[in-house]
Design goal:
Helix 2 links the parallel strand 2 and strand 3. Helix 10 runs antiparallel to helix 11. With 305 residues, the protein is an alpha/beta fold. The strands form two sheets. A six-stranded parallel beta sheet has the order 3-2-4-1-7-8, with helices on both faces. A two-stranded antiparallel ribbon has the order 5-6.
């Protein structure tokens, strides 16, 4: 068995709920492909599956590192392939689920990721600049030296921006031209979930409000108490960055919430550059039409093929 299901789409669209239903129906296990859910202690702001959801079907690559640990795209790809093979060897179907385009396509397309060693001194220098409000300046520097890489990287993904600058500093080959592909030996069915833009924004705005009601501010406070400072790349994630600024007295809570919502809307638009509606590899379903039964039928036919 070499079947692999991918469930992709913008944040807040319902990928986790659908994946759990499919995993239950088709004897599957879920592999996380959200670049922030790999971190321990960052639960509310990353919208991790609930404890109840985690017990329904096996989940993998959630809570595997601390917020101050180094974790590269190559690390994720290696672990994802390992989990896929383990699940398939149990005669079950792996479902890779998430909205991080680089994580998804690195696995599905078999990116051959260049093994450029980290330049830790240079990285710390860039992280320090980002921590004092110069993250956008770093992105502009990347756009100058490697515009193709900048076009593919979300300017708010500080860790990826820094890594691209780090690789480009080696001077051998641009970050954007190093990536080659080696198609993995999987029979892949990619499900894309989508909705009208206004509906997407409504959903994520409601989710942000729910996060605040669930104790998001206290989660960020607890992270800081544990010693995870606000200048860590992990803490530059949408939501954590703004709540951190609120805790530092740099803005009101209402201002932070507004910025989280606007930033998430921007992130959704960026996600559609990774998961294009005209990509023939993705079978799209509008969640506003309650098409779960149709999705299950499509998966059933594919499993039997």
């Amino acid at each position: 068995m070499n079947k692999l299901i991918a469930v992709v789409g913008p944040t807040g669209i319902g990928k986790t709920k659908l994946a759990i239903e499919l995993a239950q129906k088709f004897q599957g296990e879920i592999i996380n492909a959200d670049s922030r859910q790999v971190y321990r202690f960052m639960d509310i702001g990353t919208a991790k599956p609930t404890k109840a959801e985690l017990t329904v079907v096996p989940h993998h690559l959630i809570d595997i590192i601390s917020p101050d640990d180094d974790f590269s795209l190559a690390d994720y790809q290696r672990l994802a392939y390992q989990k896929i093979d383990e699940i398939q060897n149990r005669d079950k179907i792996p479902l890779i689920v998430g909205g991080s385009g680089q994580y998804i396509w690195a696995v599905l397309e078999g990116w051959v990721i260049p093994k450029v060693p980290p330049d830790r001194e240079y990285r710390r220098e860039l992280e320090s600049r980002a921590a004092v409000g110069k993250a956008d300046e770093l992105y502009q520097e990347l756009a100058l030296v490697d515009p193709a890489a900048a076009a593919k990287i979300d300017r708010h993904n500080v860790r990826r921006v820094i890594r691209a600058l780090e690789v480009n500093r080696q001077g051998k080959e641009l970050f954007s031209t190093q990536r080659k592909k080696q198609q993995p030996p999987y029979d892949i069915f990619t499900i894309g979930l989508t909705a009208e833009r206004k509906e997407l924004y409504r959903r994520v705005d409601a989710r942000v409000d729910a996060m605040l009601s669930s104790g998001f501010v206290n989660e960020v406070k607890d992270l800081v108490k544990k010693g995870y400072t606000l200048d860590l790349p992990a803490m530059f994630s949408i939501g954590y960055r703004e709540i951190g600024q609120y805790l530092e007295g740099k803005m009101t809570l209402d201002e932070a919430v507004y910025k989280i919502k606007v930033g998430t809307h921007r992130f959704i638009r960026a996600q559609y550059t990774w998961f294009r509606r005209d990509d023939e590899r993705i079978r799209w379903f509008d969640v506003g039409n309650n098409r779960v039964a149709e999705i299950e039928t499509a998966v059933k036919l594919w499993v039997k093929s």
